[in-house]
Amino acid sequence: MRFTVRAMLGLVLAAAGAVWSLQGLGLFPGQSFMNGRLEWTIIGAIAIVAGLGMVTGERRRDGPG
Length: 65
Hints:
By secondary structure, this protein is mostly helical. The protein has one domain (5-62). Helix content is 71%, strand content 0%. Helix 1 (5-25) runs antiparallel to helix 2 (38-62). The longest helix is centred in the last third of the chain and has 25 residues, at 38-62. The chain crosses the membrane at residues 40-57.
């Protein structure tokens, strides 16, 4: 599988979503306006799903190998 720009952006979006979700749950260290806020947990989860969807969609479009 060759990685395209879309797949790379999908991975970045999924990673950012993971950070946002952890902050929303209060599990990510540091002081932030996002810590302990349910809306950031939800936004992060949506970003993870969207990012992984971009990667999966790109793999299917690119074909095997």
